[in-house]
Amino acid sequence: MTGSYEDRDGWIWMDGKMVEWRKAQVHVLTHALHYASSVFEGERCYNGRIFKGVEHAMRLRRSAELLDMEIPWSVQEIEAAKYEMLRVNGWRDAYVRAVAFRGAGDEMGVSAAGNPVRLAIAGWEWGAYYGEAKMKGAKLDISKWRRPDPATIPSEAKAAGLYMICTMSKHAAQAKGCSDALMMDYRGYVAEATGANIFFVKEGAVHTPLADCFLNGLTRQTVIGLLRQKGIPVHERHILPTELAEFEQCWLTGTAAEVTPVGQIGAFQFEVGALARDIAQTYEAHVRA
Domain tally for the chain? Predict the structure, then answer.
């Protein structure tokens, strides 16, 4: 599937029915377009099964609640809609994007509690998020933007507005020939990449930033569980930027990223080592089991 995302063949589930791809549109005065009243999920379907689909649907509804929105479809109805979308498009391996948003209505200001909450579920066939970096190791820039204090934003929500600085950071990184950017949190600790969590290896143990002000990704949680099943120590803690020089290996995790080794962050170099490769292979086998 290639070309502009607005000009493709296929079907998108929208507000309870299947809509032809090119007709799945909203009005320019949709509240979400002006005030970022939108939440979403990115999921992958492997061999006809969406990995952790129910958990994603639950998080979508929880994210909406954190933004003072109520999605008028249950977890079970959302799950059924995803599989219907995949079925009519003929996909067994695909990326799935569910997005809930406050639509156009009688109100057009910061407050629009009376406007309808809408839901759309699309999908597309998508390979490795970082391309060749999946095997060679991604190169990361260090962003000037920081993940915000959770007292200023609902950090547990996968909300569209929280990705604004991620887009800006990734654009800056790509302009430097990097795949992505590492972001610090509001205190200056290592946080995450623009759309993926991050892990480091030192002396046989794994270290990953404590998810206390950014999204605790479902892939992150899965990888931590797989590592512990292997008997590998995992330390969830605050990590200082100065510690980057001490780590031997590094990788990113996320639904889109899956498990992608990192070869460089700024001036710091990492080996695409045995543990990074092993956990990537273990994760691949796990999601396709």
Answer: 2
